[in-house]
What we know:
Layout: E1 4-8, E2 11-16, E3 19-25, E4 28-29, E5 43-46, E6 59-62, E7 65-68, E8 81-85, E9 89-96, E10 102-103, E11 115-116, E12 122-130, E13 135-143, E14 148-149, E15 152-158, E16 165-167, E17 172-174, H1 175-181, E18 186-188, E19 193-197, E20 201-207, E21 211-215, E22 221-227, E23 244-245, E24 251-259
Antiparallel strand pairs: 1-2, 2-3, 3-4, 5-15, 6-7, 8-9, 9-12, 10-11, 12-13, 13-24, 14-23, 15-22, 16-17, 16-19, 18-21, 19-20, 20-24, 21-22
Amino acid sequence: xxxxxxxxxxxxxKVDAGELVSYQxxxxxxxxxxxxxxxxxxxxxxxxxxxPTSEANFRVSTPKGDAIQDQHGLLRELQYxxxxxxxxxxxxxxxxxxxxKIKNSKYPDKSTVEILVWPYDFEFIKEFELTEKxxxxxxxxxxxxxxxxxxxxxxxFNLVTENPTxxxxxxxxxxxxxxxxxxxAFQVENCDEIxxxxxxxxxxxxxxxxxxxxxxxxxxxxxxEPITFYPYAVAQEKLDKGFQFLTKDLEVFEVLLSLxx
Length: 261
């Protein structure tokens, strides 16, 4: 799949097979670039679960029995297909049929489970749209009514100053505080907006998530992750406590990246 490019005034976007690999405003790059220290990706999604499962024998309880899931779910093992694109909007889709066996890319180097399985059908759409406000990223989930799920968006942002901070409506969080938490990720509860204060201030505004977790192990990158549930709030064998359930044909979640005024 060729890289999809979007343009609007001073804003440009590049999407590689559904992955946001560039978002520039006035030629300033906000997205972490692959190959730089930190993380091998630029963005991904966590679905239908968030969090690790190794201590629970890679099992997560559902109303249809145990699902076999590795960390952050099997969605990332599926390929996006481009549905349509224009100068300012691109739509990508993934589809899964219940109980289809999916090879785990972490096996055998980083995991002991080879095959992942989920007992529900679902369709997952990811939309990118450039607007006057900024870049809107929408996630549209459809499937069987009553399907349990968690959703997390996992973008990585480029850092260029020595002392960047994250600001919420309650407090400021330093990069050192996030680094100190390590792999568990820093929890931000009951929050739908964070401002990354770096060379330019980037506002991340969400709908439907209500929480964030923040993660990095290097000073040049920060993952600011909208989540529906913080997975380290429970033991791994109780990860199902974080599920919400599909109650209608479509569930829509949104993230807006915009420059702070």
